[in-house]
From TrEMBL:
Residues in HTH luxR-type domain copies: 201-266
Cross-referenced Gene3D superfamilies: Winged helix-like DNA-binding domain superfamily/Winged helix DNA-binding domain
Protein name in UniProt: DNA-binding transcriptional regulator, CsgD family
Top-level taxonomic group: Bacteria
PROSITE patterns: HTH_LUXR_1, HTH_LUXR_2
GO MF entry, a single one: DNA binding
Record keywords: DNA-binding, Transcription, Transcription regulation
Length: 270
């Protein structure tokens, strides 16, 4: 876990630039490059029931860059980190694989998402580079928002083992302070477009029973029938009954159709 004087100096210079109001999100990413190995990064601010505020990314041009914008526009609603944020995730360092539900399954014919069991969350936004693991720096911000710097690294290069996370931990407070200062400058000088999105909890609540709605919400978040039974404290056969009844009321028969229906309701044309 030793760092060279050159690396520490580079980290300090990048973070100082941000703290002094002369740098931005790309400087945060540059600073992180001197601490842990990664191949691409994304920086956003997460908001409750609104799409994330995009700040920057270092994904390659073409399909990967397009996939980032697709994530900002739609698939963020299914992301384990975003849902953990809504559930009150504390700030700090988080590995995506530790946030994913027990049996995260997605849908291979959804235009925005590709089923891929090798992925740590079981799917990826279409165009996103394959087989990446993510380490996320989560920073608490005013008004219930949370800053996010997501670092990505291929699994075949080792991903983000706990030792890599611990390598970053001593630097987290400086990154958090820098992010808050950067966001204060950004929000003071930029009109943040407010586009409220209906929360997942409102989906089909006018036609589903409370238990059916809870079951559907957990399915959309990637939980298996067993996991749903444990979360809700009901038997697996009861979960399956709620799912069957919910699908019938929604006029669908598959998880794929459920996701399509949800995204259309959420305001995204497929």
């Amino acid at each position: 876990m030793d760092f060279s004087a050159k690396s520490i100096k580079a980290v300090n210079l990048s973070l100082s630039k941000v703290m002094e109001g002369q740098g931005g999100a790309l400087d945060l990413i540059e600073a992180a490059q001197h601490i842990v190995p990664f191949t691409a990064a994304l920086c956003v601010v997460n908001r409750v029931d609104q799409s994330p505020v995009y700040l920057c990314d270092s994904y390659p041009d073409g399909a990967p860059k397009d996939a980032v914008q697709c994530y900002i526009r739609s698939t963020y609603v299914l992301n384990p980190f975003y849902n953990a944020f809504l559930a009150g995730l504390p700030p700090g360092l988080h590995r995506m694989i530790d946030l994913a539900p027990d049996n995260w399954k997605r849908f291979d014919d959804l235009p925005e998402a590709v089923l891929a069991q090798k992925e740590e969350i079981g799917f990826r936004t279409r165009g996103w580079p394959e087989n990446l693991q993510e380490l996320i720096l989560a920073v608490d911000l005013p008004n219930g928002m949370m800053g996010e710097v997501s670092l990505a690294r291929p699994s075949d290069l080792g991903g983000f083992e706990p030792t890599i996370v611990e390598r970053f931990r001593p630097f987290y407070p400086l990154f958090a302070t820098s992010f808050r200062q950067m966001w204060a400058n950004h929000s003071n000088n930029t009109a943040i477009l407010i586009e409220p999105h209906a929360p997942l909890e409102d989906f089909a609540k006018d036609i589903l029973s409370p238990r059916e709605a809870e079951t559907v919400q957990l399915i959309l978040k990637g939980h298996s029938s067993l996991s749903i039974s444990l979360v809700l404290g009901i038997a697996v056969p009861t979960v399956k009954t709620h799912r069957k009844n919910a699908y019938a009321k929604l006029g669908i028969s598959t998880q794929q159709q459920l996701l399509n229906t949800f995204l259309q309701w959420h305001g995204h044309d497929l």
